[in-house]
Amino acid sequence: MNEFTLSRVPQSIEAEQAVLGSMLIDSRCIPDIIDKLKPECFYLEKNREIFEIIYSMFTYSQIIDPVTVLDRMKAAGVYDENTSRSYILQLMEITPTAANVGAYVRILQDKAMLRALTDMCSQVMELAQREEGEAAQVLEIAERRIYDIRAGKGVSGLEHISRVLSHYYELLGERSRSEKSIPGLPTGFTDLDEVISGLNNTDLILIASRPGMGKTSFALNIAVNAGKKTDKAIAFFSLEMSKEQLAMRLISSVAFVDSHKLMTGRIGASDWEKIMTAAAAISKINMFVDDNPTVTVADISASCRRISNLGLVVIDYLQLMQSASGKVRPGDNRVQIVSDISRALKIMAKELGVPVICLSQLNRAAESSQDKRPTLANLRDSGSIEQDADIVLMLYREDYYARLKDGSAPDNNTAECIVAKNRHGATGVVKLQWLQQYTTFSGREWVHDEDDF
Fold it and tell me: So what's the pLDDT on residue 176?
């Protein structure tokens, strides 16, 4: 028998009772502590039941006192004729004041985290002893569960619809009080944000196009815009370009210096001034870059768990990624591998609780259509990419193709962002500007100003 089964389960019944007693004798303390606790913070089942009753009543702005709580306990079927009334009175008697409730809450949080760590260690030890998977897989499971504990996430499972509705009611209240026009992280493209409601947590957003359409530039634009408008950290994983190439793209798009000049080094004095100003502005963004070409979803997930205040993950691009398991099994084909990767990315987005943008190639069939505009059928390697993604954005530029059929010159300053799939709302086409020399996109209403950066 291992030491975990012999040791005492971390708990503090006294602190649990003091927290509940504080809530009952002074309901004014509830708003300050309700969001810091979860039912699983309470080890004793009857304490957990009372907390859930109070939590539900608070969510729906109901009066909370010993009489109303007992009444709700009866309605919820957790009232005991012999003990419930006396136990509620006992909770109030042993708690003379609610002034120290913050300290009691911290004790509960600490004990709950220790219990979660104990359970996690037991489970990981069992996995390791069974030797059913590779060491790297067991390590990934352990790291993911430690991250969940640190982030305050419990193990997912069946949850009564009343609690789900309570959580949503609270979220809806937060959104109604917010001054933000969209619920998600801003992309910096106003028209696009209106269609997709910004970049929302747990969403997998796919940006797809044929090579050379500018999807890397578009992803960088979004990453920089999101970083400028929020204090969130941005993680950018580039499997195709080096960090130096990404830096050149960023400088060109922010400083409005011709990318060819940056490539050749033929830079004038006025350009140097722009570059220095742009570099200072970019450095203020909380953005991290990784250019490892052999990165896997597990590697990305592990790196992102170590970033504080993470807000967005960008991956360039899907078809260059290694198998989700880190190795190719005999008999695996590219379709199966890409399917596994896209599914793993969606799971990662849910676990991290942030939007994940992944770039993807389109197949050549997109160019065989009459107007050459891409559709979901053109996603390369696997239809499961479309299934796993919450939003699919496709870039189209008329000037990418040499000439129009009638021989007229194409509009080389116009691009289209085709919202081909949107799990949260409508689809459609958003018009953008494409500034070729600066390798950057902007909204149609935008006009370049030297003071922009």
Answer: 67
